[in-house]
Write a structure and sequence with these properties.
The chain is built from 31 helices and 31 strands. By secondary structure, the protein is of the alpha/beta class. The strands form 9 sheets. A 6-stranded mixed beta sheet has the order 6-21-12-5-11-10, sandwiched between helices. A 5-stranded mixed beta sheet has the order 24-31-30-27-28, with no helix packed on it. Helix 21 crosses helix 24.
Amino acid sequence: MAQQDAVEQLKDRFAKPLEEFEQRRVVFWHDIDGSFEDQFDALTKGGIPSERAVRFLKLSGSNRFVAKRELYRLHAGDDFLVYTTEPKDFSPKALEKNWLADIEIYSEHFQADFASLLAESLGAKDAAIEGVSMFRQFFNAADRRARFVKLMPQAETKADVALGVIGATLGASDLSLETIVRTYLVLLCEGSDPLGQLSKYGADSLFASLVSKRIGYNGDLLSRDDFAAHLLLTALSTQLPSEFLEGLEDRISIPHGQPCLNVVRAWMGDEKSLVVLFELARDTERLCGLPKRFSEIPLVQLQAADVFPCINECILASLLGSMAQGADRFDEALQIVQRRKDLKWFSRVESYFSALEASAHMQRFYREHAQGFHVAVACDVWRAYTNDWHTMDFWYRSFCSEFDRCGKSSFDVAGGVTDELENLAAWVEGVYVNWFLSETNRCWVNAAEDQWSESGYIEGVPRQRRFFDEFVLAGSGDVKRTLVIVSDALRFEVADELAQRLERATAGTAELKSMQGVFPSVTEFGMAALLPHNSMGLRESDMAVFLDGDVPVASTEEREAALRRRKSKGRCIQSKTLLAAKRSARKQLVGDADVVYVYHNKIDAVGEDFNTEHMVFDACETAIEDLVALVKSSINDLNISRVLITADHGFLYTRNPLEERSKVSAADASARVVKQGRRYLVSDEPSVDDVLFVKMNMDDIDGGTYTGLAPRECVRIKKAGPGDNYVHGGLSLQECCVPVVEFRNRRSGAKGFEERQRAGFKLLSTSRRITSMLFHVELFQTEAVGGKILPAEYEITLLDASGNAVSDTRPAHADMATTDETVRVSRIQLGLKAGRQYDPKKPYYLSCRSKDDGSEAWRQEFNVEIAFVPMDDFDF
């Protein structure tokens, strides 16, 4: 094929008409390796079709003078094709001894050896022809040539050719050092023989030269363990001071730290082969005893390193273990958790870090309230709980949920992390149950007990029994329809999270309020209290609750009938019915109702079942997702602009089984009990023991027929059967503090509308000069996350003027909710790409781009002033 192409190209040349100033055409055919001599001889015999006669000359070492005579004297007006095996060389030294120098200089030249033709077909420059010739065997196959051209569309040097051959042989997706090294090691791990393939085409020594010069590896190229250890440990040397790597010097090349780190980071971004990197890292950890080494390094030195997965585990083991012992490390823990979010391998142990974060917040709360809870006025206790104390319930729920996720994780976790987490869980349980629940509810009971005994509620706090008038009707003047979602057992701290989710997920506003629940804080009383009524009654025969004497409210249909006594168009619907219906059916379900009650039951349904009560915190998360979906559906499908989300009661939940000292018997009340739960008693006798129980006035139930009793603090009442962990019905803050989330949809341009926006970063670093291959930038999160300020993830990269990345890309999370601006600072390490030169006179740009939609938030101009950047070199 190459020979045929050469002949055709020559024929085309001689077929072209002469230029105006030309009298004839002389072409020197340089066939350096003599591969086309037979074709020249064939042309000599057959001739070349042309309007002018074409003569043929074959140069040898002894016929130069004869050739000159032919060209100048005998056939001075004829076209000539002069064949030679010598290269074109117009250097002064070569021209001095060349009889045909003057003719060669003005003549045409045709490089038609195999390598030249192949180089031309590959788009390679003349300087790359020698490289093409070196790898003649590789280029024999069309598929290999195609792979080469795809990777190296225009080779300019023989080094380019060598790099393209290496990449094409390995099957690399591009010719970056990062991709070539990764591809080679992946092939080794898969059991292939990449070095043998390179050797087959004479590229093995060049590959060895490449990895030696660029990443400093001079070991056995067939040893995946040694190769990987060198790569990973050398990369780590850029993140840890050298004194922490003593004894590993034989496996580290300090000058090559940055390119090795670039290889590792690029690999971390390749999800297809990430598992291979993880396995290599684990093997290196075992080979070099890294977990023990890292466990002895101060966390301040270790917190920014991410090459090895066990770094996360060592950090976790240290913090989890010491915090389980009560060490005050919450600030350090929170700072490290935030730092690790932007580093690799975090997702594998994210639940462990989230559990650590939750426990750190609990520890901070514990230290901030170390003096105890000494509020004397009941409504002030209420405000303290709704403004501050309830966050302890939230962080306890978060810890328990993350603890469960850790147990379900499919990722292996080393370094004793699981044991330390178990120890921390014991500390969390002790602080939450024995200190927080006990102390806050003792304070609550002491402050409210007299009012409960006298009137059955506390002054200064809205009451659940007035919900319809004070919440549903009071705020409905400017809307046509109000949707009321009653989520069974939605306690206050869960509603707080729900309100924040609604702010982030919709264009509306969500305001969280509270009201004191009716006693006992159970479904039949709480659901009744939320409906319009004047009085409530309890039928002793079956303990059914009635409104206004004889109005039953046990079923959805009965509740709708009760609602229509005040709102003739009122509707009551189960949430599962509403969510399952199509849009048109939803509109029919609601009809022309001006007040719609929607009943949702996820939390209580799970908690009340002994077989699932341990999943109640998961049910809280599901409930939040359901309620957000309900609100969105109401806005979009039913055109509702006002939604109230409330509950019938809250709940108490603790993970560990209760001790006997945390239980009392109903017999200890010394009163006849007509209704009983694990957290309440209802008696028809007015005189009861108030030492173990708190007395609750129930005059507003059947005119004082009954007296309520609740065990103090968080003590349970003994009852046959399991189910002590999830309870409600009593007077703890967690049970009787009923949330009311008022959501109002806001349209763009309307009063009160606030645009949602993602938290952003501002570049803090004042210097705009980069003077080393590894550099850091500091970013300030400009707004605290909360309300309409949403968390965001960005990608930070250095670009050249054409928009090409010249550094690795690093993530940066803008998700901090703290108002302390000094804390909202992130430090990001970037590495310039090797194998290219950086012009100090040209601008480069640090780009901050949203990971969510790819939009660029900002870019800042930098100068790169690097004295020397290593280039690809194969010892040519």
